[in-house]
Amino acid sequence: xxxxxxxxxxxxxxxxxxxxxxxxxxxxxxxxxxxxxxxxxxxxxxxxxxxxxxxxxxxxxxxxxxxxxxxxxxxxxxxxxxxxxxxxxxxxxxxxxxxxxxxxxxxxxxxxxxxxxxxxxxxxxxxxxxxxxxxxxxxxxxxxxxxxxxxxxxxxxxxxxxxxxxxxxxxxxxxxxxxxxxxxxxxxxxxxxxxxxxxxxxxxxxxxxxxxxxxxxxxxxxxxxxxxxxxxxxxxxxxxxxxxxxxxxxxxxxxxxxxxxxxxxxxxxxxxxxxxxxxxxxxxxxxxxxxxxxxxxxxxxxxxxxxxxxxxxxxxxxxxxxxxxxxxxxxxxxxxxxxxxxxxxxxxxxxxxxxxxxxxxxxxxxxxxxxxxxxxxxxxxxxxxxxxxxxxxxxxxxxxxxxxxxxxxxxx
Length: 412
Fold this sequence. Notes:
The chain has helices at residues 14-26, 52-62, 76-85, 93-100, 102-111, 155-165, 246-264, 296-304, 308-316, 393-406, and strands at residues 3-9, 29-35, 45-46, 67-70, 119-122, 135-139, 149-151, 171-175, 181-189, 192-197, 199-203, 211-216, 269-278, 281-288, 331-338, 343-347, 352-356, 359-365, 372-373, 382-390, 410-411.
């Protein structure tokens, strides 16, 4: 008898459409997609997935589940509550809430003695605090770098600007944290958490925080050349300090992030954590309690040589994470093709796979010829994504540059 998997979703994503749904079918699961946008998902069931009571009611009506899963940033808490109600393996809903809410995350890490990070929550009617710049202003529960900005001065003006776009939403103000930005990708089961690896992140120009490129860093703690500035807050808290050997500093950064995840209660399932290597030591930027996105989940699977989407679903079906294979010396990157001007897309490469010089390269268009581009200075400005895997960094970078030169996006 087929296992019954319920997957909660909002808008369609490549991670679900090309990753988790095929993985579920490969595992022999009978899948029901629950969404508040059924017209955008084939054969989906309409449900107010942002309300855990409605979610539980719908699942009980449709048939008892073997697993309930979501890869949506916005639905982790609701999905975890539903899984708990049915007695299924799942994430701790409190950890989901603390990870999603950036103010709660800072408070939990402060109370646990992991990081003493300055953070102020601004409700819709709260006065703007008088704090020295530079600071970072961000939505309390935002995604995709939307309305995240570095503010050197005139915080009141910046808050007013964001509030006009986000009426009724809470914001967070944090001190600016400067340093190379890294990620740590983890996958946990009932027995504990396992590190899959991590990336070095390149950001676009300040005052915005658009991720333009991610490069494989093996265990996620490599201390190579800086690829951009991060945002958060400095502090003198525990968690490792620069200095000594590179290996020691890398291990200190990794252990600091893992300690932060433990303090938040994060462990079960997939998690994508961003952290900065500051002069005072590593500091968590944000915890995204789901798999890494922007096609880096596919890149991670390519680099590890494992069916990553199946592994993540198996955990929610009550299985253990398999042993990781011996690390490969391969290098990989994901390069986001970001619009640098408003206009209409006149030319664009299609969805394609290319092999050249030992490098496998994939291009995924996110927009189409004829689309009108309006710059937002967020991840919404992506035109497409190129991901590539090869034997070494030099050959991968050469293949990416050659592809981009031969198949440009033209916006006029």
